[in-house]
Design goal:
Radius of gyration: 34 Å
Order of helices and strands: EEEEHEHEEH
CATH superfamily of the largest domain: Ribosomal protein S16
Number of strands: 7
Family: Belongs to the bacterial ribosomal protein bS16 family.
Mean pLDDT: 84
Number of domains: 2
Largest sheet: 5 strands, mixed
Organism: Hyphomonas adhaerens MHS-3
Protein name: Small ribosomal subunit protein bS16
CATH class of the largest domain: Alpha Beta
Pfam families: Ribosomal_S16 (PF00886)
CATH topology of the largest domain: S16 Ribosomal Protein, Chain: A
InterPro entries: Ribosomal_bS16, Ribosomal_bS16_dom_sf
Strand content: 15-25%
Length: 148
């Protein structure tokens, strides 16, 4: 049986309150659980003692038995110490490189920048020659108007 230490939601609408429970991984989130080992109230200030209350000994015992904490619960358990060690060694769960575009997208962006730079150079060069070319066109238009 795969065991999880996870949050079970309680409280009413817009007023969340969670119980930290040990449950079978196949059980529903708010359904059957084996043991309740703590609570989490996200509405409390972050520095409040009442925000997270977990029985450290019970949590350490379940981790030794093989229960896997979810990311959020692992973060809580890493801040609790039993016998001078954190219950769980939690590593940062977010991937900072996830938001960066992939290799092909970076190549396409680089090609777009090169094309834009080339177009800017091309637009700058003919702009200097353009007045010289426009003058004969204006003269031709003036000659046609004069001949009519």
């Amino acid at each position: 049986m795969a065991l999880k230490i996870r949050l079970a939601r309680g409280g009413s609408k817009k007023r969340p309150y969670y119980s930290v429970v040990v449950a079978d991984a196949r059980a529903p989130r708010d359904g059957r659980f084996i043991e309740k080992i703590g609570t989490y109230d996200p509405r409390q200030p972050k520095d409040s003692e009442n925000r997270v209350k977990i029985d450290a000994e019970k949590a350490a015992e379940w981790v030794r038995k093989g229960a896997q904490p979810t990311d959020r619960v692992a973060r809580f358990l890493s801040q609790i110490e039993v016998d001078g060690k954190p219950v769980v060694a939690w590593t940062h769960g977010n991937n900072p490189k996830k938001a960066e575009p992939g290799k092909k997208a970076q190549e396409r962006a680089k090609e777009r920048e090169e094309k834009a730079a080339a177009a800017a150079e091309a637009a700058a060069a003919p702009a200097e020659e353009a007045p010289a070319e426009e003058a004969p066109a204006e003269e031709a238009a003036a000659e046609e108007a004069a001949s009519e």
